[in-house]
Write a structure and sequence with these properties.
heterodimer; A: alpha/beta; Purple Acid Phosphatase, chain A, domain 2; six-stranded mixed beta sheet; 8 helices; 11 strands; B: alpha+beta; eight-stranded antiparallel barrel; 19% helix
Chain lengths: 264, 222
């Protein structure tokens, strides 16, 4: 008993040693997005209809995120969950770890994009270790989901944001991926305070080159909004923040798509 | 996470048992608190009374520093620490600087050589080097309070316990103290305060260190 107690004490002490709140000693699962993308592509490959929940901005709203997860889990029709960024408020490693562990409680796989708060201090690097790449894409039920880092203000000119080379590559790849339609997901939309607004119209030109672009969806604004920003028929759907207890559900099938606002 | 919580509770129990032992010790009649301020006189007061080395605690992997104890029974302690967070644990190597204030209300003699300090209360402000951290938000943000916090400077609150080993009087060192602390930083305390989901075990961190009480000149002169 004594030995057992001392053993668990040592385990506890090692487990909760912190060199710095912004250090990068990540405990637990890493590369969450890659593993979940693999699962989504496998499970949704032959589906005719997709139901995707989009949550966003869950930073420092742990209680509300817990309720959101419970609400999504209580439905049995969701195929996967997209988190449009801002899992951390301060960019602390602890925040990424706690929110990652919460999102793992979703019965359906979740994919997380980077938000501007996730970029703070070492957050940008912790995000990449815990979740994965800043720009990525995957295919589910013939729909290509293009997930972009649009937090230009946080990257100065260290990184190309938005990354047109990545977009070019994806546009070239699109027919090969078996995808006939596309959806673009991002954290901050064009003309928001984070976006590189000098290239907003060029960005839209690029997006329009994707095969049958259905819509764009983003977070950052902490409210529900539907705007045809460029007046070209491409609607940008803004999902409310988890803190305001709201999320979006997109149903995509052969006839098109529907967007539903959910309050929990 | 739940295993972690269980372990956390076990550790708390150990701390409580230690404290109970301390109360039992107090009932026995002898000089319990042997702490005496044997500090320096005059300008020599600026010479630190102790040096410290600490592992973890949000101020780097290892930090070293010096400090002064003062007040009745040396209950107060102020330290300046310098720490290092190597590249292996972060994006780059960072230096940290810490200003720490401790309050150690009691000291209990448990043997001629050993004293237990059953409770230490501390607060420390830590700053970290590196371009990615700021105190005042950079000018690129649309307004001055875009994020409303500082990433460079952290306030930590800590509590802990210490064991003081008194060395023979011919030693240059007066005594050696081993300590551990449980600490939490301001941002995590805010997260915990706003969310019942966040547990104490999520935000409380362990650190430990050693304090070397330096020789004091008065005793040397005797």
């Amino acid at each position: 008993m004594k030995r057992f107690l001392s053993l668990i004490s040592i385990a506890f002490l090692v487990g909760c040693v912190e060199y710095h709140p912004y250090d990068m000693r990540i405990e637990g699962v890493k590369g969450v997005n890659a593993a979940n993308i693999e699962r989504i592509e496998r499970e949704c490959a032959s589906k005719k209809e997709l139901k995707v929940a989009v949550i966003s901005d869950s930073q420092r709203w742990y209680d509300e995120l817990e309720d959101a997860i419970e609400d999504i889990n209580s439905r049995d029709d969701i195929d996967f969950v997209l988190h449009a960024g801002d899992v951390a408020d301060f960019g602390l490693r602890d925040e990424f770890e706690i929110q990652r562990d919460m999102l793992q409680k979703l019965e359906r796989p979740s994919i997380c994009l980077i938000g501007n708060h996730d970029c703070l201090a070492t957050g940008e690097y912790v995000f990449q270790e815990v979740f994965g790449e800043l720009n990525f894409a995957f295919t589910a039920a013939g729909v290509r989901f293009i997930c972009l880092n649009t937090n230009a203000l946080e990257f100065d000119i260290r990184e190309p944001v938005p990354n047109f080379e990545f977009l070019d590559e994806q546009i070239r790849l699109s027919p090969d991926g078996g995808a006939t339609r596309s959806v673009v997901v991002m954290h901050a939309q064009p003309y928001s305070d984070q976006f590189n607004n000098n290239v907003a119209t060029i960005f839209q030109h690029y997006l329009r080159r994707f095969p049958d672009l259905l819509f764009c969806v983003h977070g950052h604004g902490h409210s529900f909004r539907e705007v045809d920003i460029f007046d070209d028929g491409i609607v940008y759907y803004q999902t409310d923040c988890v803190g305001h207890r709201g999320y979006l559900i997109f149903t995509i099938n052969e006839e098109g798509y529907e967007c539903e606002q959910v309050r929990f | 996470m739940s295993v972690n919580r269980c372990v956390f509770r076990s550790l708390m129990l150990v701390v409580m048992l230690l404290s109970a032992g301390e109360i039992w010790a107090q009932e026995r009649e002898r000089v319990l608190d042997r702490r005496e301020h044997e500090g320096y006189e005059g300008w020599m007061r600026i010479v630190p009374t102790h040096i410290k080395a600490q592992y973890a605690g949000g101020m780097g992997v290892m930090s070293v520093g010096a400090g002064w104890d003062y007040g009745q029974k040396c209950r107060w302690e102020t330290d300046l620490m310098f720490g290092l967070l190597p590249k292996a644990y972060a994006d780059a190597t960072h230096m940290t600087f810490t200003l720490r204030q401790n309050y150690i209300p009691w000291s209990v003699q448990i043997s001629p050589r050993l004293d237990l300090e059953p409770l230490t209360l501390g607060a420390y402000i830590n700053v970290i080097s590196g371009e990615r951290f700021w105190v005042k938000e950079p000018g690129k943000y649309p307004d001055e309070h875009y994020y409303r916090f500082t990433s460079r400077m952290r306030l930590h609150l800590a509590l802990g316990q210490r064991l003081r080993l008194r060395l023979p009087s011919e030693c240059v060192l007066r005594d050696v103290t081993l300590y551990y602390e449980l600490s939490a930083n301001d941002l995590n305390i805010i997260s915990k305060a706003c969310n019942r989901y966040v547990q104490l075990s999520d935000i409380v961190k362990f650190s430990c260190g050693v304090k070397f009480q330096l020789f004091d000149c008065r005793r040397m002169q005797k």
